[in-house]
Amino acid sequence: MINSCIFCKIIARTVPSDIIKETEDIIVIKDINPKAPIHYLIIPKKHIQDIQSLDQVDSVIVANILLMAQQLSLVLSGSQAFRLISNNGLDAGQIIFHIHFHFLAGKNIPYF
Q: Where are the alpha helices (DSSP H) in 12-75?
């Protein structure tokens, strides 16, 4: 855990959030500033700064993130369509430096 990281604080339960789903290595929360009717954040519990910081040992976590997106889509009523987005680096719009993926679903999913 990184003490200054908001996601690490959410994972440690020192900052409240609306938890949708949780596994041993992943937490899914509602985005507080949604860009789609369904906007979740899929966050690994291990603090990894960004995609460039991934190691080979993190491949299981990345696979579990993709499988979590699949699971989330299967429980949605109606369409199983969704977008999965991860900003990597400040110039790409990353503002929280703990890797995470935006899961967007529902009607009129925005394009960025």
A: 59-75
